[in-house]
């Protein structure tokens, strides 16, 4: 490769292509506009090719710029993964451990992480809460706690943690006013608090949604925290699992479980990480801790 071409300039040009502007690329890098502009000028001069067409609306790619973006994308991901792997190879667990989890998981996970930090005070925990499946190959997170089918992506290690069941609940105030549904034929005599989005794919929830009249749905949200709050407020009957329910603080009336003949096969909780993380003391510490604390 031409010695006049700098790796940093390639990276900066790639970010300009990704973000479409000098200022946004500079913000991502923590440098100013002029530094980015000089780097783009240097790489174009060294390559003898224009990568961008300058417009008031931003930087648009030339054919050379599109080729740069296409070829640099896997290289950038590999470098990020390498840096993440190198940063987690240590003899004693310390440093930052980034974990992705499903949303609404904090009532269950936060107390566990508090105890984890007591055992490993040199580890700083960062949580990325999302219902999306984040790639573990690019190194953005070191491990993931997932619920559902066993992950099938290549190069991943998946450790089974525990089954996660789901039940329907109502407040005592609601039951005092409306009673309990005796069976599925009575579900349209009741008000329902139900999730939206991907959570509607959960079998028991899907069965209710398929049979309940839309007018009987009093409240919907994509957050189980919202579902629980609405159920506790007496708005209707709603689904929850122990990993989503917040710990009672003494002011709450206990929720009452509603027994219905639904598909109640529990989902599975998994700890997942990339095979390159097997030597990470931080990931090993997390795996050993969760295995001791929550594996059946």
Largest sheet: 5 strands, mixed
> What is the residue-averaged pLDDT?
87
Shape field: elongated
**SSE class:** alpha/beta
Span between termini: 55 Å
Strand elements, count: 12
CATH class group of the largest domain: Alpha Beta
Number of H- or I-type helical stretches: 9
What this model shows, in words?
The protein is an alpha/beta fold and 296 residues long. It has 3 domains: 7-87, Orthogonal Bundle (Arc Repressor Mutant, subunit A); 95-164 and 267-294, D-Maltodextrin-Binding Protein, domain 2 (3-Layer(aba) Sandwich); 167-258, D-Maltodextrin-Binding Protein, domain 2 (3-Layer(aba) Sandwich). It contains 9 helices and 12 strands. Helix 5 links the parallel strand 3 and strand 4 (123-129). The model has no long low-confidence stretch (mean pLDDT 87).
Write out key terms for the chains shown:
about 300 residues; alpha/beta; Arc Repressor Mutant, subunit A; D-Maltodextrin-Binding Protein, domain 2; 3 domains; three-stranded antiparallel beta sheet; about 20% strand; elongated
Summarize the structure.
The protein contains 9 helices and 12 strands. It has 296 residues and is of the alpha/beta class. Helix 5 (106-119) links the parallel strand 3 and strand 4 (123-129).
């Amino acid at each position: 490769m031409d010695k006049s071409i700098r790796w940093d300039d390639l990276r900066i040009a790639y970010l300009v292509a990704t973000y479409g502007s000098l200022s946004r690329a500079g913000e991502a890098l923590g440098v100013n506009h002029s530094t980015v502009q000089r780097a783009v000028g240097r790489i174009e001069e060294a390559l003898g090719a224009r990568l961008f067409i300058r417009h008031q609306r931003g930087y648009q790619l030339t054919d050379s710029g599109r080729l740069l973006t296409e070829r640099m994308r896997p290289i950038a991901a590999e470098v990020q993964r390498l840096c993440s792997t190198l940063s987690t190879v240590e003899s004693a667990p310390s440093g930052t451990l980034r974990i992705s989890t499903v949303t609404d998981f904090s009532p269950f996970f936060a107390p566990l992480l508090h105890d984890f930090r007591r055992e490993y005070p040199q580890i700083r925990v960062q949580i990325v809460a999302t219902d999306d499946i984040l790639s573990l190959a690019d190194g953005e997170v070191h491990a993931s706690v997932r619920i559902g089918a066993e992950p099938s992506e290549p190069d991943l290690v998946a450790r089974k943690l525990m089954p996660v069941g789901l039940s329907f609940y109502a407040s005592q105030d609601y039951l005092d006013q409306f009673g309990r549904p005796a069976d599925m034929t009575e579900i349209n005599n009741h008000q329902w608090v139900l999730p939206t989005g991907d959570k509607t794919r959960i079998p028991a929830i899907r069965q209710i949604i398929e049979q309940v009249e839309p007018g009987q749905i009093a409240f919907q949200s994509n957050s189980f925290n919202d579902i629980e709050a609405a159920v506790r407020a007496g708005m209707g009957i709603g689904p929850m699992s122990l990993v989503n329910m917040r710990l009672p603080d003494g002011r709450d009336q206990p929720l009452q479980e509603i027994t219905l003949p639904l598909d109640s096969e529990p989902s599975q909780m998994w700890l997942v990480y990339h095979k390159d993380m097997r030597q990470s003391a931080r990931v090993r510490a997390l795996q050993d801790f969760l295995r001791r604390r929550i594996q059946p």
